[in-house]
Design a protein that fits this description.
- The complex is a heterotrimer of chains A (349), B (247) and C (304).
- With 349 residues, chain A is an all-alpha fold.
- Chain A has 16 helices and two strands.
- Chain B has 247 residues and is an alpha/beta fold.
- In chain B, helix 3 crosses helix 5 (120-132), helix 3 (96-102) runs parallel beside helix 6 (148-161) and helix 5 crosses helix 6 (148-161).
- The longest helix of chain B has 17 residues, at 178-194.
- Chain C has twelve helices and two strands; from the N terminus they run H-H-H-H-H-E-E-H-H-H-H-H-H-H.
- Chain C is mostly helical and 304 residues long.
- Classes of the chains: A mainly alpha (349), B alpha/beta (247), C mainly alpha (304).
- The interface between A and C is large, with 38 and 44 residues.
Chain lengths: 349, 247, 304
Amino acid sequence: MTRKFYINTALLILTILAPFIFPVWKTQLATLWLFIIVALTWDMTGGQMGYNSLGNIFFYGTGMYVCAIIAIGMYFPFGEWTDASRSETWKFTDSQYFTGLILGSLGAGVFCALCAYILGGLFFGLRGPYFAIGTLGLAIATGEIVSNIDWLGGGQGVSMPIYNGDFETFKNIIYYLFAGLGVSLFIFLNWFYKTRFGAAINAIRDDEEKAEAMGIHTLRYKLITWSISAFFIGVAGAISAFQLIHFEPLETAYQTINLGIFMVVCVLLGGKGTLWGPVIGAFMFHVFKEVTWNYFLGWQWVALGALIVVIVVFFQDGLMGYLQTRFPEWFGIKVVDKDEKEIIAEPAE
Amino acid sequence: MSSIIEIAGVSKSFGGVKANTDISLTVEEGGITGLIGPNGSGKTTLFNSIVGYHPIDGGSIKFEGQEISKLLVPEIARLGLLRTFQQTRIYSAMNCMENMLISIPHRKLTLRDAFRKNTVEDNEKAEHLLEFVGLSEKRFLRAGSLSFGQQKLLEFAMALMNEPTVLLLDEPTAGINPTLINGLIDRLLRANSEFGITLFIIEHNMRVIMNMAEEIYCLAHGELLASGSPAEIQNDQRVVDAYLGAH
Amino acid sequence: MDEILFNIRLLLDFPIVNLKIIIDGIMIGALFALAAYGLALVWGVMNVKNLAQGDFVIAGGYVAYSLNQVGIYPLLGVPLAFVIMWGIGWVIYKTIITRVIERDLFTSLLATFGLAIMMAQIMNLIFGSDTQSVDLGLPTWFLGPSGIIDLPAAKVIGVAMATVLAIAVVIFMKHSRMGQAIRATAQDSRAARVMGIDTEKVYAFTFSLNAAICGAAGAIIVMIWVIQPFYGITYSVRAFVVVTAAGIGNLPGVIAAGLGIGAAEQYGGHIFGIGYQQAIAVVLLLIVLFVRLMQQRRIRQVLK
């Protein structure tokens, strides 16, 4: 208990001091937190509830757009802002910038949670591969449709307001937003998975028919879990929108095969259905990505595809899953009946 | 005593095969009702119709006076009508205690309750029920590593944990070590008398069902063949013929 | 919005335009049906949901394209793409697919998704991201009043070749020993094993055959349309739409759904504008999924 407390405190202090210890890596660290957030949220449905979504990126992209509409729309007409031919330049004051950032992020989160709740009513009738393909379809279709709507900036995307202060402060702000969101998500999940609710979604994962037959409110629990997950992805998308300053519908917002598949890979690397798995997996994947993106010049995407295939085929339980089967006693799992073993052992003596 | 399940004229066919034809029966509240019949006579089909696994072709199924033949499985389960499976279904990756704690009656929880951790009482109740079925020593073992008979007992304990009004048991003694059967009969009777759970049981073991049930229905070829007290059923020539294949 | 209304009015005022759209849709739909048939085969026989299906189609197209670049007559590209994609399919089966059969469904889905990313990116590195096509140098006929319906000879030949291929595959499945073994395995792989069928061989054959069918479809598509390394996912989605709508092992259904979806896409493209073409394919998937879901719900079931 105390050792755990010291480790957690040390990690928290490291999180807070990181941008000052590694000032050059601020942006990478912010991205690492983004990966941790999307991996943890993906694991809520994929790992803990057994619903493998390939389209959670839908909430990321939607979060970006909703945030932009709120943050910009509060002070300027949004349609004119996104009009490529506009000549005048509008600038945000500091107070406008920060109110936009905060209200935009919260609005994005709430909107995405609502989307998940409504869409879930339809999508949770789909099981297994149909759910995966259906959600993938949702993300692709939304991206394609958004890129055709002029009011939303069409294929060009949207330019976000620019922070007036210096660039290093801006990077710090973004880092702490991501880190704060990630830490609160982690603390939330640490509690959430221990509640009856958490046990119920595990039951849905292990045998949904049995869970239904036992009278668990399966649909309600699924909807709430997906909504919470969508809330955090939506806020992460909103922060990303401010971080990137400019985003496009297909390449950035609804980036189905980039971040949309990264989150799945992170979780699989670290271990599905565990609390620390997605965090460790996000770290491992971030390192892998930095290495391949820097040294494989053009072949990085092929390496990513190969990585997915290799993980799925050979290493599907991830690091935590591997440790759990190798050293079950670390996790308090009892597989063999010790008493029976002793009885068998006795005559041999 | 009033009837808690009323089945009137239920028919169900799969393709051309008539699994149930015009079956009517009632289950008395607070009692133990038996359902017997040779293999393939449509017993499990009738159970599946009651709990909503498939649509029925005709007839009506009422639970506590409410029509349930159009409801979905979870909706019916939430009314307090629970079933166990012929091939047991448990969460095999979890240990027995976790299996029990997942089975707390979620239908009685508000959303706020669901967002709480399990209480000390929940834990005590789970341990008590595991002791009741004789699995106390194995409570921290993975459920999947238990023997088939033990899994059956665990499933039964999980059902009790759920505090159902009516429990439908599909062959509770099949696959259980014969030396344990007397103990199981005793526990089923106590579940009925102490916890007040109405039982509706499919059973092949005549000794078991004749000792427990107050009312027995016999199916053959998807039709209701006979009904009555155990003594009446035992002396019914049609039932004997059905089992001996004289039909 | 005005544009959409205008396009709909055009269809009502000039019924002949409908005919043109339907002919176009059926021609392209025949190729969707071909790729979907391959997907249904693999799905039914070894329960693998192949998300790289569309990338096989595109790969076949690039095989034909490269052969044409080195001076081989385009029409010969179709059988050659069939043979070469057969080999590629066999290699992929032996390295990846054989290890994911009989694992849970998400495994095969994700493994083939990784494969799809890999294939698309490799093609992108080799051929670049520009759209490519092969010109047969054949005439285009104009039919109807004032020649409103354009009918390129290449398209007619392409559809004819697709039909011949489909008929050949069906005859093969019905009458050859291997075809019977495939159908037996699809019905019950354990029983097939007990009866002495080497299911591993059947799986390898089925997967290679699927890759070959897709390859041939791609070689036809490159003659009458354009291909691009990242178009694969849309073809995968279309194949899934067709199979979800028709069900596995329902050949007339697959053909009907393929042609129907071809026509629906052409109509959608006409009404909403060409920019929505990709979106329409995916929205059709969502529509089909939910129609099936409602049907299942009526029998108290879910779609799994």
